[in-house]
Amino acid sequence: MTEPRVRPAILDDADAIATVHHTAWVQTYSHLLPADHWESDTVVRRRERWKDQLSGEASGRPLVAVVDRDVVGFARAGATRAKDSVPPVRADELWALYVAPEHHGTGVGTLLLDAALPSQRSAELWVVKANPRARRFYEKHGFAADGARFVDALGIVEIRMVRGR
């Protein structure tokens, strides 16, 4: 296996990104979501959304981590977005970071985070409160919960974590 590398995502990555995204969601959030959620949240649907996003000029262009030509993770960061009635406290936000489960603990997540938001950059992110693995990962990289919380459309509680000033 070659060392992972990070590069900008391209349209041809849509299938692989969708698979990583969906697989990570199933593994991480199945216990939080009703079984019928997965009837509409499918790899096919995610693939179409990723094709749309990658074919346009959207902000927050995603980065992918590649090992042996396979996309094994992705990250996306950009300007901070307001979350319902919770105003942003940093200019930059990590919008998403997902790694294929078989690559957890290999350094892929760190490579993606460092490429999307270099460690000296202050930033914020939202993470599912019931996802201790992700929370520990972000804490290891200098993020701390600041007390803000949000309940998303699926009823899942997210907490904000911030880094820097």
Molecular structure report:
Helix content is 31%, strand content 29%. The protein has 165 residues and is α+β, with helices and mostly antiparallel strands. It has a 7-stranded mixed sheet, with helices on both faces. The protein starts with a strand and ends with a strand. The model has no long low-confidence stretch (mean pLDDT 93).
Rg over C-alpha atoms, rounded to the nearest angstrom? 15 Å
Shape: globular
Distance between the termini: 39 Å
Biggest sheet features: 7 strands, mixed
Are there runs of 5+ residues with pLDDT below 50, and where? none
Beta-strand content estimate: 25-35%
Binned, the helix content reads 25-40%
H/E element order = EHHHEEEHEHEE
Number of strands: 7
How do the strands and helices of this protein lay out in sequence?
Blueprint: E1 5-8, H1 14-29, H2 37-40, H3 43-55, E2 63-67, E3 70-79, E4 92-99, H4 108-116, E5 123-128, H5 132-140, E6 144-151, E7 157-163
Parallel strand pairs: 4-5
Antiparallel strand pairs: 1-2, 2-3, 3-4, 5-7, 6-7
Notable traits:
165 residues; alpha+beta; seven-stranded mixed β-sheet; 5 helices
Summarize the structure.
The chain has 165 residues and is an alpha+beta fold. Helix content is 31%, strand content 29%. Helix 1 (14-29) crosses helix 3 (43-55).
